[in-house]
Amino acid sequence: EVQVVESGGGLVQAGGSLRLSCAGSGFTFDDYDIGWFRQAPGKEREGVSCISSTAGTTYYADSAKGRFTISSDNAKNTVYLQMNSLKPEDTAVYYCAAGECYDDIRPPDFDYWGQGTQVTVSS
To answer: What would the pLDDT profile of 63-73 be if each residue is shown by its tens digit?
Structure first.
């Protein structure tokens, strides 16, 4: 059974940090790029960051550049998203997905999705 499980969300004050984790099982983790997305209430799901499985190339949305860092530990089938200098506008449900990274990190390019983890940034 394919499973993608996010963890690490929570409530943090503006300027704080969180590290999200994404663990995959039931599929060959190394064959897939891993992306992070977020969806705020009333808004479309948007790509935040992505890491390729081969060269480890990383991609970031403009909103994430300079504040978020994506990394992977293939031995643990886990990808991390370190989020620093968080802002209230970062509040959303964050999703992890397995698929293919491109410069524009788009949901249709991803096959397996987790259930999401809530991130709330208070002002």
So the answer is: 999 999 999 99
